[in-house]
Amino acid sequence: MSLFPAVAVAFALLLPWAAGVLWLRILWPASAPGRWPLLLGYGYLLGLVSVALVLRAQSAATLPLWIWPALLLSAVAASFALLIMRRRVAVPSLASPPHAERPMTPLQRLLFMLLLGWLILRFAGLALELWWQPVYPWDAWTTWVLRARVWVEAGSLVPFVSADEWLRDTEGLSYSIEAWHYPKIVSLLAAWPALAYGGWHDTVAMLPWLGCALALGLGFYGQARLWGASALTALTFTWLLASLPMLDTHVALAGYADLWLTTALGLAMAAFLQWVRTGDRRQALLALLTIGLLPLLKQEGLVWALLFLPALLVALTRGYGLAMLAVLGVGLAATVLATGGIGFELGGLGHLWIGTDRIELPLLGAYPLELRGTWTPVVRHLFLYDNWHLLMYLLPVALLAAAVRAVRGRAEAWVLAGLVWTVSAFAALYLLFFWTDAYRWAEQATSINRVVMHFTAGWLFWMMGLWLSLAPDASRAPDGVPPAPARQV
Fold first, then answer.
1. Do residues 38 and 27 lie in contact, with contact meaning Cβ atoms separated by under 8 Å?
2. CA–CA gap between residue 441 and residue 431 (Å, rounded)
3. How far apart are CA 416 and CA 396, in angstroms?
4. pTM summary value
5. Domain-by-domain residue ranges, the chain?
6. Taking Cα atoms as reference points, which of 416, 420, 438 lies closest to residue 429?
7. DSSP 457-479
8. Region of residue 233 (phi > 0: left; psi between -120 and 50: alpha; otherwise: beta)
9. For residue range 8-26, what is the model confidence (pLDDT) as tens digits?
């Protein structure tokens, strides 16, 4: 890769990242442990998806795909930088001030450096995989990257339509693939750096996936530090996330949409739990933004976004309200079983039907229900194969600990919200892999692991919160003892 295209690609990736970070920097003007990792992680995700949205919008106006988004982002980034320098924007926080920490002991510092070195080497290896290997995974060939390459080589966002529409296109101005209706954002994320490069290049198009994995790790670590975890504890849980084999596979074999959905869902869950725990309005905004990204990245993202509703209801209710919520849930299930189903018209979105024979969801379609799946492939992929290390063994322990606290009435709102969200996720996965045609995805090992992967970062962050509540971080100063000053990592 020659110098000028390399500079253009770096500019294309760093510019939206900088715009996202500068915007979030306005919301977090005060120094706090984990602030910069949080800004870098969330800023990358929001910035890259924003540039993809700009590409979609300006293509409808038949403007050049590369120059206008770059100019717009430059103007936005410059405006945010000017606001920061003038210090005219500050958003008050309802969160408690960051806790004071003791300095790390020599052993803790050694462990921190070892884990950090492991992570650096791991990401370096994944970067080499992207550099050496052309686009490889199957869905990338057939859908996500295929559309990106067509758009880059055509110089415009030519439409992808159904096979019937393509046959009726006498002018030959459209293309057709089996998944023509999938959301465009992930394909645009691959197209953006290639447009800056000046032509198609597999490695260049896959670079955003490496950045996405970095953003997940940085955002996770930053939220863990803001939660109150010590630098070593936060890095340990980040290492547990980054070492998941299935997650690393989706970086090395870049091209799927699932890594982006995992990052958005994980960062959304972290911000949601932070808001429930502290009432920080900035975290609520981050949660809303990242939840809003889910339907843009993949079709099932809409369903995963809806899973936050029961968690939100539980977080906002107390005492008798929580009992009434449980009664309403049981009553709804009894009504469905007794009548065969209930339905609602949701305006322009379509029809919602929940029944014993099928589920019909707006914008997603109808799914016939029939028990066909078996436990054998599910147990094999989650517990026996080397996909998740010990995560699937530790998660039931966390669920049990949270359930015991809930039964005893000692569970905080964030514990209950995370418990309900996790149970809702498993209920959705059970419905998907046992009661719909997707049971073949488990039997044929085509997508069971990558669908489960969407929830792993959110689960792990909630588990980290439980761990800290059960075993308070040793870095915190004991009550009545003045804390020693410590550097913020």
1. no
2. 13
3. 15
4. 0.89
5. 3-90+112-300, 303-453
6. 438
7. HHHHHHHHHHHHHHS--TTBPPT
8. alpha
9. 899 899 989 998 998 899 8
